């Protein structure tokens, strides 16, 4: 059984994975491989923590990964939410996949770009209708007086949109996380974990395609 909160110093799991040797794949291949392995063991493998910045410092929340290719990671949100506004003012972003059930995490640093409208349209169109209406009505991260208020607004929108497709609202869409650093972490015995970080081969911090092997060098880090 997991220890209760008053036994935090005694709460620990031991890790005992196969040694994670020098990866010879490009970061995209390795991330795809780890994602597919997580998909067999983790309840929501596409849940990732994203951290953004404003004048007061960083803040973090979970969003769902909805696309992955050489350009980076795609997720969807409200552009007027706290994170949406923060990213449009300062695109610096960090992402973490907490795949503890695999004794793994993946850490990413990069820059967020507003996704192409066609990409947002395409994903919005396949969302369940209830989610489409919810996104239309929600003013994410703004105060609301009550749950009843939200429901009243939802019901009004649902009635108004009855019998027709829900158009994607302008305030809702994707961000694509372009990457300049990505670390793969595998837990090991004695807290002597394996860490391999892909950094830009030229020593810089410009984002690069994840399938471009020449753009990356991989370095082992002390745990
Ligand atoms: C498992 C999980 C998945 C979530 N997925 C999303 C998502 O894909 N997009 C989103 O905007 N919020 C998602 N949320 C809600 C966010 O964590 C957050 O509460 C919301 O986006 C407001 O964040 P902000 O005020 O920092 O902008 C998810 C929450 C959880 C727990």
TrEMBL record:
Q: Name all Pyridoxamine 5'-phosphate oxidase N-terminal domain ranges.
A: 36-151
Q: Which reaction does it catalyse?
A: pyridoxine 5'-phosphate + O2 = pyridoxal 5'-phosphate + H2O2; pyridoxamine 5'-phosphate + O2 + H2O = pyridoxal 5'-phosphate + H2O2 + NH4(+)
Q: Name one GO biological process term.
A: pyridoxine biosynthetic process
Q: Which cofactor does it need?
A: FMN
Provide the E.C. number(s) assigned to this enzyme: 1.4.3.5
Alphabetical list of InterPro entries matching this protein: Pyridox_Oxase, Pyridox_Oxase_N, Pyridoxamine_oxidase_dimer_C, Split_barrel_FMN-bd
Species this protein is from? Brevibacterium epidermidis
Which SUPFAM superfamilies does this UniProt record tie to the protein? FMN-binding split barrel
Key words, A-Z: Flavoprotein, FMN, Oxidoreductase, Pyridoxine biosynthesis
Give the protein's function: Catalyzes the oxidation of either pyridoxine 5'-phosphate (PNP) or pyridoxamine 5'-phosphate (PMP) into pyridoxal 5'-phosphate (PLP).
Tell me the protein's name: Pyridoxine/pyridoxamine 5'-phosphate oxidase
A Pfam family name for this chain? PNP_phzG_C
Pathway of action? Cofactor metabolism; pyridoxal 5'-phosphate salvage; pyridoxal 5'-phosphate from pyridoxamine 5'-phosphate: step 1/1; Cofactor metabolism; pyridoxal 5'-phosphate salvage; pyridoxal 5'-phosphate from pyridoxine 5'-phosphate: step 1/1
Q: Which residues form the Pyridoxine 5'-phosphate oxidase dimerisation C-terminal domain?
A: 172-223
Describe, as the record does, how this protein assembles with itself and its partners. Answer: Homodimer.
**Per the annotation, how and in what number is the cofactor bound?**
Binds 1 FMN per subunit.
Top EC group? oxidoreductase
């Amino acid at each position: 059984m997991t220890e209760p909160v008053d036994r935090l110093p005694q709460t620990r799991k031991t890790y005992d994975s196969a040694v994670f040797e020098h990866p010879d794949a490009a970061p995209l291949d390795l991330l795809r491989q780890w994602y597919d392995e997580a998909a067999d063991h983790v309840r929501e493998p596409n849940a990732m923590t994203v951290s953004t910045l404003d004048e007061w410092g960083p803040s973090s929340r979970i969003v769902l990964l909805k696309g992955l290719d050489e350009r980076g990671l795609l997720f969807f949100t409200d552009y007027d939410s706290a994170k949406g506004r923060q990213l449009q003012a300062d695109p610096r972003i960090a992402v973490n996949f907490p795949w503890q059930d695999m004794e793994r995490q993946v850490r990413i640093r990069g820059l967020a770009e507003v996704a192409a409208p066609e990409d947002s349209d395409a994903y919005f169109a396949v969302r369940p209708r209830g989610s489409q209406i919810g996104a239309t009505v929600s003013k994410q991260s703004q105060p609301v007086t009550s749950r009843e208020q939200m429901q009243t607004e939802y019901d009004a929108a649902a009635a108004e949109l009855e019998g027709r497709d829900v158009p994607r609202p302008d305030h809702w869409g994707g961000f694509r996380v372009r990457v300049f650093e990505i670390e793969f972490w595998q837990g090991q015995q004695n807290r002597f974990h394996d860490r391999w970080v892909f950094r830009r081969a030229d020593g810089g911090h410009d984002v690069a395609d994840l399938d471009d092997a020449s753009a990356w060098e991989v370095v082992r880090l002390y745990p």
